[in-house]
Specification:
CATH class: Alpha Beta
Number of helices: 6
Helix content: 25-40%
Number of domains: 1
Largest sheet: 5 strands, parallel
Bound molecules: adenosine monophosphate
Shape: globular
Number of strands: 9
Order of helices and strands: HEEHHEHEEEEHEHE
Distance between the termini: 19 Å
CATH architecture: 3-Layer(aba) Sandwich
Strand content: 25-35%
Radius of gyration: 16 Å
Length: 177
Amino acid sequence: MRPDLRAAIRARIRDIPDFPSPGIVFKDITPLLGDAGLLALSVESMAAPWRGQRVTHVAAPESRGFVFGAPVAIALGAGFVPLRKRGKLPWRTRQQAYALEYGEDVVEAHEDAVGPGARVLVVDDVLATGGTAEAACRLMESLGATVVGLSMLMSLDFLAGRERLAGRRVEALVRYA
Ligand code: AMP
């Protein structure tokens, strides 16, 4: 990806200190989403490394994962699998729990979302601690799918999500050291 285009994407990601709680710097992507050219460029750049990988499905956690996941799926000629929080999906679900700073959370997918033979790309806006992404991968694998890798808009590398996902291919358009 051209460095000037990467810089343009970075410039449209806004830091919001102490949101949603003290000490967190929230990465606000709404300026990027509102820019037609950079939105299209972001989607295309998140899809590009995975062309030729025979991706059959893109799986993405709600809700900002959906914003990039569905268009990346279309760009790759793949289906889309919504990963949701507990109790939101209407049919039979498979769950994967993951640890939060306090307590735990769960991601769910429909049992028939993917199966053996599926080649899944996991997409989200932010890779932070990697808990969400790791749970998404395990959930897909528990249904018999192969996880090809992860495509993120940005990664917060100081939070070591990449170490948590060691052995998996992780691509991010913007990295914060
Ligand atoms: P984690 O499971 O810690 O990797 O967190 C990833 C999820 O939380 C993603 O779905 C992000 O949308 C969200 N997230 C985590 N940290 C931030 C942040 N600093 N700014 C915006 N979103 C975040």
